[in-house]
Amino acid sequence: MTPLYDPARHEPLAGAPWSEDAARAEIARIAASARDEFDAARGNWPMHPRDDPPTPQTRHADLYFGATGVFWALRDLASQGVIEPMLDPRPWLAQLAPRARAAVAHEAHGTASYLAGECGAMLLHWSVTREPAVADALHALIRGNLHNPCREPLWGNSGTLLAAIHLAEASGEVRWMRLVQDGVRVLLDTMEIDPDVGTWTWVQDLYGRRIRYLGAGHGLVGNVYPALRGAALLDDVTVQTLVERARQTLERCALRDGELINWHPFTDAEDLARAQAKGKLPPVQDCHGAPGIVCRLAGAPRSPEWDALLLAAGELTWVAGPLAKGASLCHGTGNSAMTMLKLFRRNGDERWLDRARQLAMHMIVQVERHRAEHRRGRHTLWTGDLGAACVLWNCIIGDDRFPTLDHF
Question: Phi-psi region for residue 151, left (φ > 0), alpha (ψ -120 to 50) or beta?
Answer without folding.
Answer: left
